[in-house]
Amino acid sequence: MPGLPPAGLPPAAAPAAGADADALVIGAGPNGLVAANILADAGWRVLVLEAEAAPGGSVRSDRGVHPDYISDLFSSFYPLAAASPPIGAMRLERWGLRWSRARSVLAHPLPDGRCAVLDQDATRTAARLESFGHGDGEAYLALTALWDRVGPEVMRALFTPFPPVRPAAALARRLHSAGGLRALRTLALPARRLAEENFHGPAAPLLLTGCGMHADFSPESLGSTGFGWLLSMLGHQYGWPVPRGGAQALADAMVRRVESLGGAVRCATPVTGIVVRHGRCLGVRTAGGEVLRARRAVLADVPAPQLYGGLVAWEHLPARLRDDIRRFQWDPATFKVDWALDRPIPWLAAEAGGAGTVHLAESLDHLTRWAAQLSAGQVPDRPFALLGQMTAADPGRSPAGTESAWAYTHLPQHIRGDAGAAPGTPEIGPRWTEAQSEAMAERVEREVERLAPGFRDRIVARRILAPPDFQARNRSLRLGALNGGTAQAHQQLMFRPVPGTGRPETPVAGLYLASASAHPGGGVHGACGANAARAALRAERTVTRCLVGPALAAVQRVFEGGRAVRPGGRGGAPGASRTTSSGKADD
Asked: 404-455: per-residue pLDDT in tens?
């Protein structure tokens, strides 16, 4: 039966409430749950501590909009999960997970009634693109051919702990055979420049650029083509699947699996501090006053600014790290509206009705203008919105003939003005009163109505999540920052989360950063948690403690230009000798 432990795998003894464990994992988001499963597979006794009332982190769903409709709270479509080696290795289908897909992956309806469509079949997608501009289909197929040649190596390099030496070497060989520096230049282009060089019509640039803007890339950003290409190609290879029955089904499957291996997940248990003595992590302190001991490691699936100077007091950390964290850049805030609709959305472009995801922007210039307003700290007057048609992707999300839908847009983390302010309407600002939230929801719904007249008449119920509501429901999502920090180049690879080695080891021995603030960053793929778990396992080996650890420390000193603590070792910050948690002395 789905959800039951497979035959022949007897559960081990789980850590009792309040008991010590080999590893404590802070946070039951996808990265924390992947890390917990990998450690449990290795025979470790694992206890996961989750602050919220339910596991899942950003992978949760409920019936909070309408009792007959399932709504995802934060994330919905999971191409990176479908492609993820650590998630795939867990074989979550044995634990009740079932994937579902819409007829088409993505649609981008245009004001003139035409529609760009990303189909899972690349040839069909190219044929549609050809109708928008002569030669556009062939140019798009050149991008899919590049993926066919280098895609597997790209994914291996992405999901391998930094630096991905062997995958990078294999990727370099593949790139050489696929066009060498010219292929690399294509992927490095800003999305607008890719459009200017390769396409004549608007459809292909809108599909690729819109995909890139699922992260915080503008059409003019370095990396916008590469990320847009990655998501588009995953759409062809895997679709953009959703868990049948709601996002929570993915998290629940991971919880069932780790529990079958003897692990335990405790919800409503916020961790308020990490206990450190002589530079080594010993355990955690909870909001309820418990002190739990970790015999081997603590893995923190929390944003880097919450870990450094928050859960771990500054006295245990290198002085340079405080300045680095001050410079840490969050990704943008998020505003979301969930709807229960009594009928499907009445798109002018009928093809949009079969897509799981719909992008709402009238042109590439619209996307550039929206991104520029965000950069200037302005609330955009015409938001670029991503819309999810969840019943189209999974018919069980709402009654037959209806639609469970949502749309979200990004906002500045620090609002300095409102580009859409008009007489008689409240100016949208950082305080987020009910009137401001209603005004912003009206702005989002107006964009849907432009492309689907009569949309508002189909709304049965709705829920508004303003940026503070995201943080209230998941304290790791600072004002709705979904990716654990910007995806821009200055905070990726060896710069994530701060300049260093780009690895999950921290300056405190036995403590590992397992969140999306670590390499490779945001998205539901579990690689950040997997990298942290494998680093903890490696630290148990003699060769790591004696050879690899000092070597990594030396590399880190080169990158940071300062003192580094040996990963997995016994060192600590100068003068850090007392046991403390969250900056307070342990009596």
From this structure: 999 999 999 999 999 999 888 889 988 899 999 999 999 999 999 999 999 9
pLDDT digits (tens, 9 = 90+) for 338-371: 999 999 999 999 999 999 999 999 999 999 999 9
| Residue labelled with tokens 């036995």 | 510
Q: How far is CA 407 from the centre of its chain?
A: 17
Helix (H) or strand (E) holding 64: strand 61-66
Cis peptide before 574 (omega within 30 of 0): no
Tally Cβ neighbours within 10 Å of residue 286. Answer: 19
As beta bridge partners, residue 404 has 340
b/e 185-197 (16+ beta carbons within 10 angstroms → b): ebbbbbbbebbee
Amino acid identity, position 275: V
Residue 567's contacts (CB-CB under 8 Å, 6 or more residues apart) are 503, 505, 509, 535, 539, 549, 552, 553
Q: CA–CA separation, 141 vs 145, rounded Å?
A: 6
224: its two tokens = 């916008």
Mean pLDDT of 491-520: 93
Buried b (16+ CB within 10 A) or exposed e, 61-82: bbeebbeebbbbbbbbbbbbbb
319 Cβ neighbours under 8 A, 6+ residues apart: none
Structure tokens at 102: 């819409």
How do the residues of the chain divide into helix, strand and coil, expressed in percent and rounded to 5?
Answer: 40, 20, 40
Give the tokens for residue 230: 């990655």
Q: Tell me if 412 sits within 8 A of 332, measured CB to CB.
A: yes
Q: How much of the chain exceeds pLDDT 70, in percent?
A: 89
Tell me the per-residue pLDDT of 521-535, one tens digit each, with 9 for 90 and over: 999 999 999 999 999
Instruction: Answer yes or no: are the C-beta atoms of 487 and 521 closer than 8 Å.
Output: yes
Mutual angle of helices 527-539 and 30-41, in 10-degree steps: 40
Helices (H) and strands (E) in the chain, counts: 20, 22
DSSP string, 88-151: HHT-GGGGT--EE--SEEEEEE-TTS-EEEE-SSHHHHHHHHHTTSTTHHHHHHHHHHHHHHHH
Identify the bridge partners of residue 242 per DSSP, sorted by sequence position. Answer: 100
530 CB contacts (<8 Å, ≥6 apart)?
A: 34, 35, 38, 85, 86, 159
Please write the tens of the pLDDT for every residue from 568-580: 443 333 333 334 4
- HSE-CB for 393 with a 13 A CA cutoff: 33
Rounding to the nearest 10 degrees, give the CA dihedral for residues 322, 323, 324, 325: 50
Residue type, 500: G
Cα 235 to Cα 121: distance, rounded to the nearest angstrom: 9
The span from the CA of 311 to the CA of 52, in Å, is 17
Quickly state the pLDDT bin for 585 (edges 50, 70, 90).
very low
Hey, what's the torsion of the CAs at 325, 326, 330, 334, to 10 degrees?
130
Instruction: Give the total residue count for the chain.
Output: 587
Model pTM?
A: 0.89
